[in-house]
Amino acid sequence: GSASVEDAPDAAIAPSPFDSLRKTSVQHEVHRKLIEDWQMIEHREGGYFKETDRSPFTMTVGEQSMAVKCDSSAGTQEENTVSRNYSTLIYYLLTLKSPIGKLHKNKNRIIHILQRGKGQYVLIYPDGKIKSFRVGFDYANGEVSQWVVPGGVYKASFVALNDEFHNGLLISEVVVPGFDFDDHMFMPNFQTLVDLVGNSQAEKLKFLL
Ligand code: GUN
Questions:
Q1: Which of 40, 49, 94 is the pocket-test mutation for ligand 1 (most atoms within 8 Å of CB)?
Q2: CA angle, 124 as apex, 111 and 207 as ends, to 5°?
Q3: In the chain, where does DSSP find H-type helix?
Q4: Residues with Cβ < 8 Å from 14, sequence gap 6 or more?
Q5: Residues 15-42: tens digit of each pLDDT
Q6: Cα 71 to averaged position of ligand 1 atoms, centre (Å)
Q7: Global pTM value
Q8: ipTM entry
Q9: Pocket test for ligand 1, best of 52, 88, 109, 171 (most atoms within 8 A of CB)
């Protein structure tokens, strides 16, 4: 089916999904070996990642800074542009030892491709709309295996119980233009979440901060 997240069937967000996930401090051997073999490192968002490709070609794009421009005078083209690689590609892994990818947003749309396991995504749009959906290969039961998150939309993810990948989730992510820290922003705090979705929803989602 379509990779648009709008078309992904909605999933309820359990109040505390990790009650049912035996949270353990011991990494499953399969995950431990994958992290070691592929030299994955801990991601600041939670989970583990490895950048497997960064296009050597660069492009010039409009100013990507999230900071408010103070200078109202018209700048030259160069003053308002930044250089980015054409694309980047990563593996991203969640396990029971690090089961949550914390709420953050990126200036650019991100293409996600499922490799192994199951999980759930929670998106928060700038207007406060919440979209949550399950990722997996069981498309007959509403899971999707490709999904595109629009730029500027907050995103979080967490593993869902599954036998086939030992309660893990392994995906690939493609970003165009390529990933740059300046295009990335964590959800700053609980109040920002409250301002976006209101008090009761924020309470339900605060485990993703
Ligand atoms: N470095 C730190 N985080 C990331 C990420 O999410 N993607 C890429 N490509 N590099 C990173």
A1: 49
A2: 105
A3: 29-37, 190-197, 199-205
A4: 20
A5: 777 777 777 789 999 999 999 999 999 9
A6: 30
A7: 0.91
A8: 0.93
A9: 88
